[in-house]
Amino acid sequence: MSTAPRTPDTPTDDRLPVTLPALADKRERGEPIVMVTAYDFPSAQVAEVAGVDMVLVGDSGAMTVLGYDSTVPVSVDEMIVLARAVRRGLKTPFLVADLPFGSYEASDAQAIATAQRFVKEAGVDAIKLERGGVAVQRARAIVDAGIPVQGHVGLTPQTATALGGYRAQGRTAQRALDVTRDALDLQDAGCFSIVFEAIPAAVADAIMERMEVPVIGIGAGASTDGQVLVFHDLLGIYDGHSPRFAKRFASVKEEMVAGVRAYAEEVRAGTFPAAEHTYSIDPDELERYRATLVPPAGIAWGPGEEM
Ligand code: KIV
After folding, report:
1. Prediction pTM value
2. Which atom of ligand 1 is nearest to the CA of 58?
3. Counting atoms of ligand 1 from 1, which one is nearest the CA of 37?
4. Using H for helix, E for strand and C for coil, what is the string for the chain?
C-alpha cells in the first residue's frame, strides 16, 4: 500500500485550533458553525482540509462504518478506536465524540469514567450524550469532572424505539415542550452546546430564543447556530435510509464502485499492472539470481541444493 500520508498542507495550516471560546464567539457574531462527522483517519483529513469548525465521532459510525443496523450495539472500545483514528487526522477542528448507548446512563461514576476514557485514550476535546431526563444529571457530573459536554435533543437515535422510530420529534405542543425542557435542562447542566435533531423549524426557532450556548442543528431548520451532517450521508457513501434533512452534496460511492470495477476489469483483462507499475532489476543481478534458482519442473535438485 502507499506510505502513510501526513496531514496535507492546506489553507487550514494558518488556522488556529478551534476552542470553546472560539465557538461561543462565532455564535455571538452570528457566524454559522460547521460540524461534520468523521470515523477514521481519511475522513478526519477531509474534514480538516475542508476547514470545518467541529468534528463529531458520532455513534452513527456504528451504522456507517461498522455495519450495525442501529447505533445501539456499538461499544466504548469500538468508538475509541474510531476516535483515536480521527484524532490522528485532525489539527484544527474541535473534536467531540459520542458516548455510546449504555455507557453513561447507569450512574454519574459510570458517565465520568466513560468520558474520561475518551479524553485520555482518544484525545477528544468534548463528549456528546443524548436526551434529557437522566442524561441531564450525567451531563452535569461530567462537566463537573472538567470535561466539556454537548447535549443532543429531539430525535435521539440511541432511544429511537422509545420515540416510536426514526421520526421527527416535537410535532405536538406537548412534545415540543418536552424537547424545549430537555434543551434548557442540558444548558443549565453546563453543556457548552446542544444538538437539535429532527424537530420542526418553528419549534427550533422558539427554543433558540432561550438558548445561550451554540446550538447545532440537523433537520432543525436554519435558525440554529450551526449545522451538522453525517459524512457518509452528505458524500453519498451510505446506502441505508437517508432522512429528508440529509442533503447529498456528492456521489462518492458511485465513484468508488466505478474505480474498483475498473481495477477488476483491468486485472481480468491483463492490462494491469503495466510496465510503469513494476520495478526493474539490474540485468547482471537478474542473471546471477536466475542461475541460483530452482531447476525447471521435472529436474530434481542435487543433494544439499534445496532453496
Ligand atoms: O451520531 C451522529 O452522527 C450524531 C449526529 C447525527 C448529530 O449524533
Report:
1. 0.91
2. 1
3. 3
4. CCCCCCCCCCHHHHCCCCCHHHHHHHHHHCCCEEEEECCCHHHHHHHHHHCCCEEEECCCHHHHCCCCCCCCCCCHHHHHHHHHHHHHHCCCCEEEEECCCCCCCCCHHHHHHHHHHHHHHHCCCEEECCCCCHHHHHHHHHHHCCCCEEEEEECCHHHCCCCCCCCCCCCCHHHHHHHHHHHHHHHHCCCCEEEEECCCHHHHHHHHCCCCCCEEEECCCCCCCEEEECHHHHCCCCCCCCCCCCCCCCCHHHHHHHHHHHHHHHHHHCCCCCHHHCCCCCHHHHHHHHHCCCCCCCCCCCCCCCC
* Mean pLDDT score, 208-229: 98
Residue tagged active-site, from 28, 31, 197, 265? 197
139 C-alpha to ligand 1 centroid (Å): 17
Residues facing 149 on adjacent strands: 127
For ligand 1, which residues put their CB under 6 angstroms from it? 37, 56, 58-60, 98, 152, 195, 197, 218, 228, 230
Positive or negative torsion for Cα 111, 113, 116, 118? negative
Start-to-end CA span in the chain (Å) = 29
Residues 6 or more apart whose CB falls under 8 angstroms from that of 208 comprise 215, 223, 224
Q: Is 305 a catalytic residue?
A: no
| Distance from the alpha carbon of residue 150 to the mean position of ligand 1, in angstroms | 11
Question: Are residues 160 and 189 in contact, defined by beta-carbon separation less than 8 angstroms?
Answer: no
Protein residue with its CA nearest to atom 3 in ligand 1 = 58
Nearest atom in ligand 1 to the alpha carbon of residue 35 is: 7
Higher pLDDT among residues 56 and 300, named by residue: 56
Encode pLDDT of 266-290 as tens digits: 999 999 999 999 999 999 999 999 9
Q: Which residue has the cell 481519511?
A: 42
